[in-house]
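REQUEST FORM: STRUCTURE PREDICTION
Request ID: SP-0412
Submitted by: Lab K.M.
Chain count: 1
Length (residues): 231
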Amino acid sequence: MKKIPTGIKSFRKLREENYYFVDKTQMIKDFLERGSEVTLVTRPRKFGKTINMSMLSESFDITKDSKEIFKGTKIMDTPYASELNQYPTIFISFADAKRDKASIVSTIKDQVLKEWDRYVYVFDDLSKYEQNKHDFLESRLMNYSNGNLEGIVDSISFLMDKLKDYYHKEVMVFIDEYDTPFIEAHTKGFYEEVRGGLSGLLHNSLKTSNSLKYTFITGIQRVAKKISSVI
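STATUS: Completed
RESULT:
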């Protein structure tokens, strides 16, 4: 008997561990056909945003072999099956960026460093200038004691550039609950101390990067202004 996937956030786990599964893989087709560099979806928590984002990331991630977990799904009966595992992919979640400022900052840095570590091989053979930039960004990302986001605004965009150089393909970027740190900082009274660094991080990777293919962002708060006003 299949299990009910309560609280499951990983599409791979959902498919590999005999959970009930509602096939929403046509989202991949819709996402590609939309052709927008940035897609923002805002819904309250528990609306299935994270599992769908995990599905999208698994479908594109060039470092993975996802044939088995997509076997028998609707997307495999479309021409977009050829896009399976064809792009360098960054998947970051800010869902746990909560509590005090130090916790929010460390969670943001941890999420970026996780992807840096996953793709550590793309930092081999850097030029002297690139190595200096790498070392500067890495030192800021690994400095948890300063409690701020100063100096990390290029950390995602730099990784994107190196991924594009390595794979000769533009990068898919997925960011879950991008607005949680903003909401938490506003609620706790230190919004201005977080806003600049986080806005810069998003702006440099999603708005001005030449290495971006498409990005899919989820948020938990109703948007009153265009996302461009944030990033």
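NOTES: The first helix runs from residue 11 to 16.
Reviewed by: T.R.
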